[in-house]
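Changelog note: in this version the structure field was regenerated for every chain. One regenerated record is shown below for reference.
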Amino acid sequence: MLHFATLFDINYLSRGLALIHSLEQHCSVPFKVFVLSLDEQVPIHFKKNPNKNVLVIQLSEIETYFPDLLIAKANRKKVEYYFTLSPYLPSYLFEKYQEVQQITTLDADILFFSDPAIIFKTYPKASILITPHAFHKGIEYMCKWGVFNVSFQSFKRTEEAILCLDIWKKQCSDWCYDEIDPTGTKFADQKYLDDWPILYKSLCVINISSVGLAPWNIKNHIISTHNHKISVDGIPLVYYHFHGLRLITNNFITHSLDSYEAISSAKNKAVQKIYHIYMLSLSNFQYFNLQETDNSIARYQVNGEGIFKKIITSNGVLFVSKWIVFHFNLTKISCFIRMIFNKISSLVR
């Protein structure tokens, strides 16, 4: 059996449910997902809608087991505290559930498109697995925020992996902020991983092109569709990380590809299909007003902006309905219209 773990609050409920559903669709072996609830509402949902593959853990359980978390909670922002939890969740699961021999922690905003078992079959001897950002050419400078992305990492119940988690817990407890520290050696929970390949002999860096596809590396690959399946360099896409995706309305989303100089990828029909599938999955779990909750969960608040302003100021927007997906960039369109208007005005004068 495979054991996964993720964490989210009610704001990310639809994302978490979409993640779990994608595992139910594609995972070829039995699995369980431990969901760390970051509020009181998530357990209510699962109590009303039980899932045999899900076990919900209350945040208070982990905070009671690791009292140092409450000290950290008092001296950092909410999102920074969530980062701090990254090593504590797998450690807690190893302590409390002896049947767990390997735990894989996942960001809630990833979706599986094919069987994740291929990852573990490829690296059967690894006791630690981590995911590289693999930044595409032109944005390599982003490594200053971390060579590896804390979105998919796996730990076996081995002495070295337990040691790794213990050290990571201490590091995150002491310093885990949403900024690069003055020495340039720390950033949130993430940059600590830069040293892991040197420190841990049983660690493997996942090197499968179809694993960990994200806005920052999508330009490295050929994304295509064949028989309605999405491929990365000819290999079935395993999972995509929808980092930075924001719901403006139920049909309009920003995709963050522009933030990673990958806006051209949004025109690729296969990439559009990736986002289309995700949005259709999210739409199955709309138990709340997604527009409001997305604003409240965002690291950079945009609550003061109206919907229209968000659309016209976003550098790349996807319109998604049940049948179609369409990409447009109103920032460029508005600039073009402004340029034409200025030319006409100058001629009139």
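Spot check on this record: The CA atoms of residues 266 and 272 lie 6 Å apart. The longest helix spans residues 330-348.
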